[in-house]
Amino acid sequence: MTRKFSIIITLLLLLGTQSVNSQNNDSAQPMLTVKQIMNGIITPATATIWGAYQLQSEAEWLEVQNAALAVIGAGNLLALGGAAEGEQGVAEEAEWIGFNNEMVAAAQEVIAAVEARDEEALSEAGNNSLYPPCESCHQRYQNQ
Length: 144
What we know:
By secondary structure, the chain is an all-alpha fold. The protein has one domain. The chain is 76% helix and 0% strand. It is elongated and about 45 Å long.
């Protein structure tokens, strides 16, 4: 993911999240399907996080931070469920909520590692905190 692309995604997510939060939660309607959120936001963002090693420049650290912000924004969107049939109901399931909350918490760990410029903590957050809820959620929900 290029720096320009990650900045654009982050800004769009922040603006979209602000718009959703400004509405009454009962009237907020998802505009994207879960698949669109996964393919368009989470997959490229997590690839950036999992591929981050030997970071040398501020731009590289910023790219990882922006990827984590994108994951948090996508988690906010996933909390609403997706626009496809049945996806809003799935988002109310305790297991879905748990996986989503774990993903967001892991992205927050990534941000803390980035702020500390700690590659070991970044690797720990990506591999041991972020990967498990992603994989577990895919095993449970990907074929629905």
